[in-house]
Amino acid sequence: MKKFTILTVTLFLLGAPGIPAAAEEEAAAAGGIAWIDLPRVMREYHRAKDLVEEFEKEKAAREAQIQELIDEIERLEGEMLLLSDRARGARAEEVMKKKIAVNRMIEAAERELSMQSMLRQEDLLEEISAAAETVARREGYAYVLRREVLLYQDPEREITDAVIEELNRKAENR
Length: 174
Prior knowledge:
Elements: H1 2-15, H2 18-29, E1 33-36, H3 38-44, H4 46-80, H5 85-139, E2 143-146, H6 160-173
Parallel strand pairs: 1-2
């Protein structure tokens, strides 16, 4: 029994270095593994830049609307000092209602902008995934991983430039 255990342990130890090699050979036979730098793709893909600009414009427009209401509230509060006690009470109530409305408007804008951002990111990731798949198939890779999940990246297996070119080419053809 002792000889069997020693033989099993010896075979395991001898075979252990071959396990990663076998996994690597299997991946190579299946087409290999490539990787992309997703943050760089997001920075350099023209459509992503355009969507960020659109989003910033929408956000600025919302902020301008809210600022108009805040300015109106401040004006009304400034005028309260000149009013009679009775009129001041009515104005204070009006100001309070406007403050509540502004807070609701801010919350609604934040929710809506957050949702729009999420949907745009989903769309971009779908486009990036499709481009990565196209490049991977063309270059013979079976898998494409994000750089962020890798502890080591072989620079020869990076397809970021090709993915960016594919995305921008498709965007120009639209």
